[in-house]
Amino acid sequence: MIVVAGEALIDLVPGGAGGDGDLPALLPRRGGGPYNTAVALGRLGTPTAFCSRVSTDGFGEALLDGLRAAGVDVASVRRGPEPTTLAVAAVGADGSAGYHFYAEGTADRLFELPGPLPEGATALCLGTCSLVLEPGASAYEALLRREAGRGVFTLLDPNVRPGLIVDADAYRARFRSWLPQVSLLKLSVEDARWLGGSAREWLTAGPAAVVLTDGAAGLSVLTRDGERHSVPAAAVGGGVVDTIGAGDTVNAALLHRLAGHGALSPAAVAELTRADWLDVLAFAARAAAITCSRAGAEPPYAAELCGSPAVEQDG
Ligand SMILES: OC[C@H]1O[C@](O)(CO)[C@@H](O)[C@@H]1O
């Protein structure tokens, strides 16, 4: 079972008619990096549990319904009366999204270190706002350290949202302090630039591999032994609507496909061949392309990805 820990929130995505004068109409969509990753894993058919603190308000109920509908186990979700975090998304002409968060005093920020993870948990995925917003961030960090210490495979996606980070240098130092506990680091090239440093440097600090996403330019992985493998982005049927949740889908697809290769351990990741990596990356690219073809974070179901072929690309 894969455990995804972190925020579930509501994205307010531009769309439809009905705004007041020059104000755009905003449609509520379930979101939050970890929420999106958990739903994507569930839709792919991977046994998944979500670990978080979710509001008892109507949005919180809808978020839990979304998880359950994807087959995600929500027994580790704690509830609180504080409101759900809101993220107002601005979508550019190319579909890229920027976010403005309303996260003061919200339920997910008050996450506390939970008891043991569900029986059979083999991997933990976390990142994004939940590792920034205190006091919950310290509890998520403690969860990462505790589970990595127990030998659980960890995937970290910093999913940097600069508007939420008060002290950029302190966050960058904190990010580096997590790396010894990280089995697989996945991040966008924009996040890599913002964080400073390089994949090669981060690899020496702990992760078995670093996956970099570069939007329309595709995905690549850099492994400990210095190999680099890349695939192009997959075609987005009907064109990009928005990129919301694409990176979160990549996290899920990586974990799902690595599990299929029996590679949810740093030692097994080190054994993956070039063909294995190309298969994993191509699958993630196809999954992300489907998410980009629809409004908001709406990851694909397994049936939409049937027969994902391995592709041979130059690294
Ligand atoms: O969690 C932070 C934000 O990032 C996203 O997950 C997209 O990657 C949005 O759904 C959310 O508002």
TrEMBL record:
UniProt-recorded Gene Ontology molecular function terms: ATP binding; fructokinase activity
Family matches, as Gene3D superfamilies: 3.40.1190.20
InterPro entries, alphabetized: Carboh/pur_kinase_PfkB_CS (IPR002173), PfkB_Carbo_kinase (IPR050306), PfkB_dom (IPR011611), Ribokinase-like (IPR029056)
Enzyme kind, highest EC tier: transferase
Alphabetized SUPFAM superfamilies for the sequence: Ribokinase-like
Enzyme Commission number, as recorded: 2.7.1.4
Keywords assigned by UniProt, alphabetized: ATP-binding, Kinase, Nucleotide-binding, Transferase
Ranges of residues in domain Carbohydrate kinase PfkB: 2-299
Family listed: Belongs to the carbohydrate kinase PfkB family.
Protein name from the UniProt record: Fructokinase
Source organism of the structure: Streptomyces netropsis
Lineage of source species: Bacteria, Bacillati, Actinomycetota, Actinomycetes, Kitasatosporales
